[in-house]
Design brief:
Length: 299
Amino acid sequence: MMREPTTHSKPSDTELRDEGIPKVDVMSIAERAPKTEETMSNTPDTTPPRTMISTRDFSSWYGKFKALHELNLDIPERMVTALIGPSGCGKSTFLRWINRMNDTITGARSTGAMTLGGEDITDSRYDVVDLRRRVGMVFQRPNPFPKSIFENIAYGANLHRKYSRSDLEQLVEHSLRQAAIWDEVKDRLKDSALGLSGGQQQRLCIARAIAVGPEVLLMDEPCSALDPRSSAAIEELIRSLREQYTIVVVTHNMQQAARISDITAFFYEGHLIETNETEKLFTRPAEKQTDDYISGRFG
């Protein structure tokens, strides 16, 4: 991926490895930041959340087409950030830069900074295999492997670390429980994942992403191909997972963004128009363009 200097300007308001992949421990996934009586308090915590993903003057191109324009966005740790905006505004493009999926596209390049936990993940020297362990991806349509339910979860985990059979069974169960699907599949783990319903397949894909111990989960319209009941199950799952993971969700459904997210960012034509706490952005938007979009005047 070629990188070149650019002149930055602010947009207008309208506009295994043995040496490289850490060991994934079942208990470390299950017990991140446990709450104890000592850490719980009736006094509100006013400490600002840690930034997990940060961009500064981040731009990207597909050939000569500039898809993203000087984005400056901080995504907080262990919260849900929703990316909204009309089709073609750059939401999914931005999501795919976070785990370097655009590396495979001829002519794709970027400038500016994008960091994960303070590390520049657009640097060509950055270990992409490790990045994709740290950053899981869930796509618009469920894409289970043509394998058993058990193997769908175990496959990715075994790429990063060789587990004993007993440890692997614990990891598979834990991942399926976190994805709220264990009770539905525990007696059919040897069955093909392709026999599950669409909503079950999507939760299976979330469990598969969880199994490798990520810090971030990216979800590109995870409910768009699902029925309302399955969508509600995914939304409930997202709300529960934010206690352990940083989640970034692309959605065209503004009601969904309002229900599940803590922070919302509005994109338009490759520009980041506005970002704020979700309640504030939907009730008191700072930009007229945001107000016009969420009120249905365009988009």
